[in-house]
Amino acid sequence: MPHRLPPPPPEEGRLFRSMFAAYPDALLLVDAQGLIVRANPAAATLLGYDLAELVGLPVDALVPDSIRPRHAAYRGAYGMSPKPRPMGTQLELTARRKDGSEVMVEIALSPLQDDGLPYVVAAIRGIAGYPRVQQALQQARYSEYIAKLARLAVDTRDPQALLSQVPRIAAEGMQAEMAVVWLLEPNRLEFRLAAGVGLDGDEVEGRRQPNRPDTPAGFVVAEGKPVLVSNYARETRFKVPPDYLQRGLVSGLAVPLSDRGSIVGTLAVRSREARRFGDDELRFLDSLSSLLATSLQRAQTEEQLSHAQRMESVGQLTGGIAHDFNNLLTVIQGNLQVLEFEPQVADEPRLQQMLGAATRAAKRGAELTGKLLAFSRRQRLVPTRVEPPLLLRSLADMLHRTLDERVQIVVDAEACPGCRADPGQLESALLNIAINARDAMPEGGTLSFACRPCRRVPTELAAELGEAAGAEDGFVEISVSDTGHGMSEAVRDRAFEPFFTTKEAGRGTGLGLSTVYGFAKQSNGAVVIDSAPGAGTRVTLYLPRFDAPGRAEARLQAPAVLVPGLRVMVVEDDPEVLAVCRSFLLALKCEVAAHSSAEAALAALERAEPVDLLLSDVILGAGMRGTELARRASALRPALAVLLMSGYSSEAMVGDSSAGLPWELLRKPYSREELSKAMVRAITAAPATAASSPPG
């Protein structure tokens, strides 16, 4: 039976008009001039016009101002070669509504020229409600907030200003009710609420809480990865603070803050909506935490560099002061010693008493400059192998006999490799720390010594120690702890500065910890302080492990006295110091030839003047240094004994290895006996002990 076609519907034109009006997408019928001829109600709703207002309106009026010139060109090109552009392959565009706002749309064009009609049908669909569009908009918003924080990180050098902005940016960007930054304290035992928005109840900036895995922040640190909470009411991995539920908080997201591989805090957001956070929020929060951690690390590095530069400047200043002061003390002490043996004074008890007081004061001045030299790293060290367990037990035995009985001393030094350090200076450094610890426990307490191998130094020392910080098992850790009152952050930051002290007048010079700092730096190590009010103090030295014997060799046994008639060439640019030195040498029955410059002394040596010992200051005004004079003199006369003098000794190390100078070094100020002993050692250490007469 043949298939019969249905009869044509009545009023076909009415049917198509009804379909046009009822179509759910916006439809515009546009003529060749770009004017809207017909529009449906969906178009009026989408574009914010009355239906009658759209008829006769140029279609360009619906294009945002920013792309209108380009749209006119596109429309002209399309008019030259019109073709259907189906839904799904068209470009995503933005339409301009009557009120000036914009809406994201998709547009499909259908030309009617093939049917003899000079029109194009534009089908427009609003896509702002599409899930993928909402996600794209959300990601774009997150990217905008990240860029905002990045600009702030570049512009500001104040880490606290950045800290205060991160929670606000996180809360605004994620439309969450609350955001907080918790930072671990240096002791890693507790958190400090560094910044937050939407805080309420017990959570206030500055509050501290324990670092335990059963707390929200502690759990993040223990896990070492982001933690998502879909519903606090059903959370079992950690204890949820009751005020979270009282405030109606339902879901949360937290990520760790990491600094060079070590977690230093957490960044968390909380919401009153269930399952509020997903992958996009996690990536956003993780990006914020990375930016914050990088900025905090940069600020810390800049502060460490600034602190190191300040300490280096102070070190140079104190070293120079000590050098000049030691020259003055040499003159004072030397003349006092000369006066002591004068017949008019020797028989006068009152004058002897006065000389004794002056001499003791000069010695205390020399001790003070010694501490300045230790801080400025201008003392001469003789590094060798030190066994920390033996040293700590010996020091503890000594302190047991001298400290208050209420101070309990504990030593934890079972197995520890040797370190490379000057044993005397290391013991002095530990003693300085122990004395400070004792003073911090006026009512008694526990003083603990410990040592252990250090697999890796703390991350905050990486910049200070340079390449050495990256070496595994490269350091030994020696610590001194107390249970005293501890230090505030402000005091801790200045603890290594010379002359800074919190003790009352007359109880401290402020040079104890500064000498420890100088010793550690000069020993190619570092020192850190971990302290908080009421939590005691721990000072930790990081010293290089001993890997090979030092080049400094044990000195030969020297004879007790000098041979009379020793020919000594003295080179000293300070006339008063030279006069003291000359008096000492004459009292030691030496023949003295004095010069005020290295150039004059070298010329005398080249003239073949007989000399047994060259005695020279290291710093000789603007001319040749004493070290260079010693090198040239030794090359000219290999058997010549050399003794150098210095108000401080880093200058003598220029051009020489850190293991020590090839010549004996006498530190100013010195007594006649110290000069005599140093001369004996210099003569004994010379390549040949015979007098260095002129060649030929």
List keywords for this structure.
single chain; about 700 residues; alpha+beta; Beta-Lactamase; 5 domains; 6-stranded antiparallel beta sheet; 21 helices; about 40% helix; about 20% strand; disordered C terminus
Please sum up the structure shown:
With 696 residues, this protein is α+β, with helices and mostly antiparallel strands.
Task: Describe this entry's structure for a reader.
By secondary structure, the chain is an alpha+beta fold. It has five domains: 12-128, PAS domain (Beta-Lactamase, 2-Layer Sandwich); 134-303, GAF domain (Beta-Lactamase), CATH 3.30.450.40; 321-375; 384-544, Histidine kinase-like ATPase, C-terminal domain (Heat Shock Protein 90, 2-Layer Sandwich); 567-685, Rossmann fold, CATH 3.40.50.2300. The protein is built from 21 helices and 23 strands. The protein is elongated and about 145 Å long.
